[in-house]
Amino acid sequence: MRNQASSCTCFRLRRAARQVSQLYDHALAGAGLTVNQYSLLRHARTPQSLGELAASLGMDRTTLTRNLRPLLRDGLLAEVRDEDPRRRVVALTAAGRQRLARARPLWQRAQRRIDALLGGATLSRLHAGLDALDAALARERKA
Length: 143
Hints:
Order of helices and strands: HHEHHEEHH
Number of helices: 6
Strand order of the largest sheet: 1-3-2
Distance between the termini: 42 Å
Strand content: 5-15%
Radius of gyration: 17 Å
Shape: globular
């Protein structure tokens, strides 16, 4: 079947995101992580409430909670006490730091692969365009 260009921005973004995620997932498999799990661990290096973590990742809390379960179960993250007992706070454990350290060179290899596929100028334009889209959507949500 021929790959036809779609005018749907969402379709194009999701198709590219799936392929990029597969590349990173394949690279990170050696550390027993997916790219989503790697990202969660990186963002949880400092203890954060679920709300803060969800906001920094652009996720809703329900999705975040579901994605945190295996990391909590495996002892890579832990729930820690907060001054406000109503807040759920997660933090990276020693095992999580070790796994992150093992995964970092694998992530870097995948990152270099994407960089090489696109080249510097195209990659810079892509990042700028994605940042602009993210900012525009954030402004719209606030309006």
